[in-house]
Each structure stands twice: as structure tokens, then as C-alpha cells.
């Protein structure tokens, strides 16, 4: 059985970029991710995802800890 508190302790300092072109899925998944990760940014297509990824690097001088991406998507 998964211990949610332990999982939150292990993931609470991670940053995540979530790239998903299905709007409903993206909007329903973001609140779940925010329960576990320090920062969650989201994009609706590959181009927007890359722009957000590069902007984050420029602003923070760090990379996202995790990038979760749809396999097939526009742009």
C-alpha cells in the first residue's frame, strides 16, 4: 500500500513541467501534481512546453527536476 505522507515527503522539493495537449486531462491532473511537488508548470503543446522549459532555465539557472510529456502532441 502506498503511504501518501511518505510520498509527499520524498517529492515535496521537486519541480515539474507537465506537457499535455488534452485540456481536460491537463486541468484535472495539475491539482493532483500540486499535492506532491513544490512547483508544477504546465503547457498545452510541445512548443509552449519548450518555451516554458527555457524560460524556467533562464529565470532560475536550474532545470526542472521532472518533465512529464504526452508522447504525441501538436507543435
If you had to describe this structure to a student in words, what would you say it looks like?
Helix 2 links the parallel strand 1 and strand 2. Helices cover 47% and strands 19% of the residues. By secondary structure, the chain is α/β, with parallel strands linked by helices.
Gap between N and C termini, in Å? 39 Å
String of helices and strands: HEHEHE
Radius of gyration: 13 Å
Residues in helices, as a percent range: 40-55%
Helical stretch count?
3
Q: List the strand order in the largest sheet.
A: 2-1-3
Biggest beta sheet attributes: 3 strands, parallel
Structural class: alpha/beta
Shape designation: flat
Uncertain spans:
none
Beta-strand content bin = 15-25%
Mean pLDDT: 95
| Count of distinct strands | 3
Amino acid at each position: 500500500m502506498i503511504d501518501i505522507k511518505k510520498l509527499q515527503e520524498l517529492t515535496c522539493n521537486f519541480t515539474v513541467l507537465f506537457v499535455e495537449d488534452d485540456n481536460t486531462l491537463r486541468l484535472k491532473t495539475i491539482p493532483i501534481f500540486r499535492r506532491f511537488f513544490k512547483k508544477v508548470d504546465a503547457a498545452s503543446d510541445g512548443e509552449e512546453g519548450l518555451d516554458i522549459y527555457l524560460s524556467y532555465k533562464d529565470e532560475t539557472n536550474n532545470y526542472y527536476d521532472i518533465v512529464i510529456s504526452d508522447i504525441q502532441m501538436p507543435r
